[in-house]
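Database export, one record per block. Field names are fixed; values are copied verbatim from the stored entry.
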Amino acid sequence: MLKPLTLGIYNLSGIMFVQAVLVLVVILIGWAYQAIQPPPPKFCGSPDGLPVTSPRIRIRDGRYLSYKERGVPKDTATYKIIIAHGFADSKDCVIPVSPELVEELGIYLLSFDRAGYGESDPNPKRSVKSEAFDIQDLADQLEIGSKFYVIGISMGAYSAWSCLKHIPHRLAGIGLIVPMVNYWWPSFPANLSGDGFRTLPEQDQWTLRIAHYAPSLLHWWMTQKWFPSLSLLKGHQGSYSHQDREILQNIASTPSVFQDKARQQGDYESLHRDLIVGLGKWGFDPMDLNNPFPHNKGSVHIWQGYEDKIIPVALQRYVSKRLPWIQYHELPDSGHLLAQANGVTDTILRALVLGEKSSITDFT
């Protein structure tokens, strides 16, 4: 039989063990909380922030949007086109349009840094809907007219889809170039979206799942070192087609001085929030949209590469079948960077503003 003193020692040891476990749990919770907290953004133009080197306008909620104008002057332009750049890109995105076409048609090009990118202020309330009104505010502040064209490239396509939903009365036409798809759109058949999802590298599948189901963990996932995250940011060549790799080699031979500015306010406000918004709940299903141009006074186009390894071609085909008023163009030998191929952007612009039939190989 144990003596009372011995029992007291055992009880004390047990209490100390429980206390130690509780302390460890508290430490782990504190560490986990700190790990998932994104760093504060580095605002451009603030006293201790980054310099402002581009023109900016202030929009209705007080944020600043940075922009870049190209082409003919807006006051003499026949066609005015706003470009929403893709993932990890900026207003300085290079769209190889021939100067001859710009002058011939009178094209004014307006690109801007989407919220949190480049020199545009982050938007803590960023949503699919807010992207459309950022574009509308930009157009109004720069007085480009009551109607304009919008081109959304890759991830920037959700900005263009949002315009179709929220400001269709302001649109002269929409071009969706290799547009991102949200695998959780309600209208996608489960087997189709599932098959498309499984074509992605496994690390990308996990990243997209976290962005959709557990967005508060995405910053941790994208910055931890234990597991691979998004393959595109790791420079994996397997994510690109043969044509894409050739284009990337050409781009690498003439690096842009603006290349590092896209993410300068922090990856969370640019890349991570882009994934969270684009893969989250949109508030509408694009495949329920109505034709904004029932009298053929404008048009909507999707341009997709058959060899695209980032956006599954089967899902784009499904979208185009559900929305027959969208003109679907599929380039058989192209990948995700199809707009960088020789002459393709000229063809895209002619189709968008003139309604010309493409002269490139037959599209499906």
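Remark 1: The longest helix spans residues 4-36.
Remark 2: Residues 359-364 have pLDDT under 50 and may be disordered.
End of record.
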